[in-house]
């Protein structure tokens, strides 16, 4: 199976082209030499080509067959392997539709963002009643990418012409950012972000939520019914031992002209990873983005406590569509307004963890909003993502404004986080 652009064409094969040329030459030769039998023979040679072409144009398969796809896992993360199973079956099974189905040459239209630059290799399983295509995708870029439609190629009778058309609708594949490996240690989380005093946690609708068990949790807080249902231990987080709530801010850089910005993807990946890590270590977390050009998600910025799939989706799904705004007054105003809203919505001693780029221009203007808040460095943490080694002006300015700051030049976020918190696992 190949991944190529979808077309809707009818083309002659080499055999059909040869037969058509022979017929035209004979018809012209007979006409010039006034030999009627030769002219008739030439015209007769052209008839099969014309009839076959008309048949392929008129007999479209789109209404006679159905296409369905199954993808696992969905949503996927960058770097995951996504198994795809495509089923093609006739709407009304008969010997004719079965023979027609098994005569198709099948191909899927797959964008490069889902292939990681590697060719697709499909396993075809044909049965009398249907045909299965099974192959694997390797998403390389965050976003929502169309998979399909299915491209089918039919060869007419006698092999004189070939028709290419599409079948079915495309499927949308949501791809979340890659999650970097982190040490799931409660001790690390408590060292970096201080626990709340007993009884100081604020009431909320999610106070009785559950999260996955991590080593060191009190076994008396295990929720056994949930553990039996999910086949893994979950603990209640409705007690005073809960950790300080945290807000993770993804500060998107200015949009670039290139289609793919590696620094942007790393910033989103680091922010999503830290949010999930803090949730899994007991914090009530909200993840917000500033400098985003897209519409705000309905779940973006909600506080999340539990660690089940639905809670993880509330954090990760809004990151799929994050798109940076171009440089200009609109971006500056929008970004400043959003940062003000984030700070105003903080609860008491809530911690602020900011992930931003270190390669931007107009640094003083970009960081002005971060210097307005006169709070201790214990409650403000910044992870500066950059590709350049050495001193970073963004990190230096944040330190001068009282932030605990670490510069991340690679994907070893776990080590950088431990350096930031001053704890080694």
Question: Tell me, what is the CATH class of the largest domain?
Answer: Alpha Beta
Number of strands: 18
The ordered H/E elements are EHHEEEHEEEEEEEHEHEEHEHHEHEHEH
Tell me the CATH superfamily of the largest domain: von Willebrand factor, type A domain
Fraction of residues in β-strands: 15-25%
The description of the largest β-sheet is: 5 strands, parallel
- The termini sit apart by 47 Å
Could you please describe the fold and organization of this structure?
It is a single chain. With 425 residues, the chain is α/β, with parallel strands linked by helices. The protein has three domains: 12-58; 65-176, Immunoglobulins (Immunoglobulin-like); 186-421, von Willebrand factor, type A domain (Rossmann fold), CATH 3.40.50. The chain is 30% helix and 23% strand. The chain is built from eleven helices and 18 strands. A five-stranded parallel β-sheet has the order 15-14-16-17-18, with helices on both faces. The chain has a four-stranded antiparallel β-sheet with strand order 1-10-9-5. The longest helix is centred in the N-terminal third of the chain and has 23 residues, at 36-58. 32% of the residues are buried. Residues 2-7, 186-192 and 194-208 have low confidence and may be disordered.
Write the SSE topology.
Elements: E1 9-12, H1 14-32, H2 36-58, E2 65-72, E3 76-77, E4 82-90, H3 95-102, E5 105-108, E6 123-126, E7 131-137, E8 143-147, E9 150-155, E10 161-167, E11 171-176, H4 186-192, E12 210-212, H5 224-230, E13 234-236, E14 246-251, H6 262-280, E15 285-290, H7 309-316, H8 329-344, E16 351-357, H9 363-366, E17 380-385, H10 393-400, E18 404-408, H11 413-421
Parallel strand pairs: 3-11, 14-15, 14-16, 16-17, 17-18
Antiparallel strand pairs: 1-10, 2-4, 4-7, 5-9, 6-7, 8-11, 9-10, 12-13
Helix pairs in contact: 1-2, 4-11
């Amino acid at each position: 199976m190949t991944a190529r652009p979808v077309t809707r064409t009818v083309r002659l094969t080499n055999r059909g082209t040869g037969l058509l040329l022979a017929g035209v030459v004979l018809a012209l030769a007979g006409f010039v030499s006034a030999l009627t039998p030769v002219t008739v023979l030439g015209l007769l040679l052209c008839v099969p080509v014309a009839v076959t072409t008309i048949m392929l144009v008129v007999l479209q398969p789109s209404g006679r067959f159905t296409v369905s796809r199954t993808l696992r896992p969905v949503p996927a993360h960058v770097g995951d392997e996504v198994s795809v199973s495509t089923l093609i079956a006739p709407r009304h099974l008969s010997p004719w539709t079965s023979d027609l189905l098994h005569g198709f040459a099948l191909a899927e239209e797959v964008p490069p963002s889902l292939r990681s630059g590697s060719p697709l290799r499909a396993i075809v399983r044909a049965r009398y009643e249907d045909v299965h295509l099974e192959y694997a995708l390797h998403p390389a870029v965050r976003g929502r990418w169309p998979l399909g439609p299915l491209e089918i190629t039919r060869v007419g009778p006698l092999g004189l012409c070939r028709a290419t058309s599409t079948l079915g609708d495309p499927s949308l594949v949501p791809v979340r950012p890659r999650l970097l490996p982190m040490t799931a240690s409660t001790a690390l989380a408590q060292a970096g972000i201080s626990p709340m005093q007993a009884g100081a946690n604020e009431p909320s609708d999610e106070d009785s939520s559950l999260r996955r068990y991590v080593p060191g949790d009190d076994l008396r807080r295990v929720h056994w019914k949930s553990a039996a249902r999910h086949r893994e231990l979950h603990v209640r987080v409705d007690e005073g031992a809960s950790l300080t709530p945290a807000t993770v801010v993804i500060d998107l850089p200015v949009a670039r002209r290139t289609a793919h910005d590696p620094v942007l993807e790393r910033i989103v990946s680091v922010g999503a990873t830290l949010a999930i890590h803090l949730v899994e270590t007991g914090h009530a977390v909200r993840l917000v983005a500033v400098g985003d050009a897209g519409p705000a998600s309905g779940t973006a910025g909600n506080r999340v406590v539990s660690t089940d799939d639905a809670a993880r989706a509330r954090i990760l799904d809004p990151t799929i569509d994050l798109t940076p705004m171009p440089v200009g007054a609109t971006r500056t105003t929008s970004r400043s307004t959003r940062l003000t809203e984030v700070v105003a919505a903080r609860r008491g001693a809530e911690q602020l963890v900011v992930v931003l780029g270190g390669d931007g221009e107009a640094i003083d203007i970009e960081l002005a909003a971060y210097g307005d808040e006169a709070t201790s460095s214990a409650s403000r943490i910044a992870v500066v993502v950059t590709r350049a080694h050495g001193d970073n002006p963004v990190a230096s300015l944040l330190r001068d404004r009282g932030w605990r700051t670490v510069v991340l030049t690679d994907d070893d976020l776990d080590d950088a986080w431990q350096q930031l918190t001053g704890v080694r696992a």
